[in-house]
Design goal:
Largest sheet: 8 strands, mixed
Strand content: 15-25%
Helix content: 25-40%
Distance between the termini: 56 Å
Number of helices: 15
Strand order of the largest sheet: 1-5-6-11-10-9-7-8
Structural class: alpha+beta
Number of strands: 16
Mean pLDDT: 95
Shape: elongated
Low-confidence stretches: none
Bound molecules: histidyl-adenosine monophosphate
Amino acid sequence: MLQAKAPKGTRDILPSEAYKWRYVEKVFSKLCETYNYKEIRTPVFEHTELFRHSVGDTTDIVQKEMYTFTDKGGRSITLRPEGTAGVVRSYIENGMDSLPQPVKLYYNIAAYRYENVQKGRYREFHQLGVEAFGSASPSVDAEIISILVAFFERLGIKGVELNINSIGCQECRKAYNEKLKEYLKPLVANLCENCRVRYERNPLRTIDCKEKKCREYTAHAPALLDNLCKECGEHFESLKARLDNLEIIYNIDKNIVRGLDYYTKTVFEFISCNVGTQGTICGGGRYDGLVELCGGKPTPGVGFALGVERLLMEMESQDVLIPQPRGVEIYFAAVGGNAVNFAEKLVYMLRKRGISAECDLTGRSLKAQMKHADRIGATYAVVLGDREIESNRCVLKNMKTGEQKDVSLDSVMDRMLTGKMC
Ligand code: HAM
């Protein structure tokens, strides 16, 4: 027999939760529009090459976590494990370099990673993110960080910590990689299999390994932040000055390297102890080489993505109030052909004017209809039968207070539209 069970690591977002999602999505999009970021929607799947190339061959995401399949045309396709690569591809493909720069985009996506499922870590998850292309200025780094600070503030979330770091450019990384390799040389045999490969191909990745023993061995490795070239050092200093100017509080965490290869210079994370073992609600940074790497002109870029599941977990643990949708405003309990016709038409007219109205759809008795009106939380109810239709009078009942009022049937619609119920 078919098992009615969602695949591991996926979740239904039921109506009792969906309004919360809609709320945070709406606050986010409104805020992004205030910052002059425009919405972009890209496909759920892309050519596998795009992620291999951008996220990086030696990352956990590419090595272990991608949902990759061959389509019927023989192409290798991957469900997006993150949003940046698709947006970069779109920026290039749609010639956005000819638009006034910086091009500032935001998105709201589902993403897919074959991960070990645990608190705050799913296989299908959702991200709210921004990407800004075409400016190398640390002011943009500070701007996107300020979006997040303003977002948390608007939602009423407190105490989420901002950690920043710089992982430099290709130049400083080349010299640093040599230093790191030197440090790891006597330890490399003890690292996990993946890290032994990373040691050769991309030593910085070893610092980001999730294996406990690798973390122990790399805990005291030299930090990239202490080995930046002049330009990257200045960029970081300038970012700090801009954050100070905006009075945004941050910690410097030399251990942030992020799990994706495309970052240059600034990297940052927002952390909370309420969202599972990883604690990261949001991560982002600068990726000045990525557009070129994906086939575009050299174009700096910077962005972030925030996990919606983790954000909602944080809101729940802080008891943040989310406004509930208004619900049904008026329920018409009707018996008899004429009354039912009248009720259905009135409900239709009210709905067209934006009032949430309901009537019976399952053939319930009058008593059962009133009980139903109560169960669905209708604010008002009206009983309609032949007598009410003939006399053009009815009883309008406030279901919350129990108060009843004899009114003309003709006036019900106006009363609902004007909110003047008495
Ligand atoms: P990321 O750090 O891989 O960065 O993911 C960003 C956020 O997505 C995480 O902080 C977390 O909240 C959420 N997230 C990631 N994986 C999962 C999961 N398995 N389950 C639940 N939530 C998850 C990126 O994706 C980059 N594209 C961010 C970026 C945009 N950098 C520049 N622009």
